[in-house]
């Protein structure tokens, strides 16, 4: 079968032929119907060889949608032919975090398809347990695949600080791309907050407006001051940083209000500087990693009701390398999705 693999350090992924896998006991074989691309894939391919945490080669893709093709011995709870998406946080299942439904924070180390085991950028993939499958019914798999990360990650981040987003509040979204454009929609659905989106370039700002931002600003050194002006000098109640580099971290802490919240979601390698005299008093600064399976189930229902819609650009698997090039070059509006 065809698969897109990361095979050599410092190199781009390759489209190769590999053997079709067979499910072991308790496992499920999916025929992939769609697989979303993520900037996390780029992060993985930028890791140095020394200390690289994953197997090599490895099939990429941690936003899978598929159809159940075969059940391993003892696997129950789904049927052959079911249309599903895959919850990507595969924890140990027994630690305190997993027991509370937070496999994304597994204390013994989470693995994911495409981030530790072979992923969904292929014609078939193995899912380790039926507990990681979420049925989607008649949802379009191309639009449903990225619910698993591009929607789940901002949804979980918003829920953590939703108590700040009351009537008359303001939320800032830095980066209106794959995750950020979904965050804007979720904020409009879940809260009454005014949403201000920050990004670079007229096209990206227009896209942020299109998906629901009330106001848009160029993401630069002046952005925090403009947010302060727009909020009467107070600052935003919550700032979500979906980029995660030093300049956006600085913007976030400069734009947030006293006793507000900053949530760093982007894996850009930067940080938000926090200290008693370098950030507003009593500000809450946190990171947010992926989300719970129960939250993914909620998102599927929201998608069925038309409350969120992931903008996608579709590529056949033969063009998957071009999809990664477009993602790397910032040419994808919303989410790139590969279809075998």
From TrEMBL:
**What transmembrane ranges does the database entry give?**
none
Named from the GO MF annotations, one term is: zinc ion binding
Q: Which reaction does it catalyse?
A: a primary alcohol + NAD(+) = an aldehyde + NADH + H(+); a secondary alcohol + NAD(+) = a ketone + NADH + H(+)
Query: Which cofactors, by name?
Result: Zn(2+)
The answer to whether UniProt assigns keyword Zinc to this entry is yes
Give every Enoyl reductase (ER) domain span. 10-338
Note the Pfam families from the entry. ADH_N, ADH_zinc_N
Task: Name the CDD domains on file.
Answer: arabinose_DH_like
* EC code: 1.1.1.1
Top EC group:
oxidoreductase
Alphabetized, the UniProt keywords read: Metal-binding, Oxidoreductase, Zinc
Which family does the entry's similarity section mention? Belongs to the zinc-containing alcohol dehydrogenase family.
PANTHER family recorded for this chain? ALCOHOL DEHYDROGENASE 1-RELATED, VACUOLAR PROTEIN SORTING-ASSOCIATED PROTEIN 11
Q: What is this protein called?
A: alcohol dehydrogenase
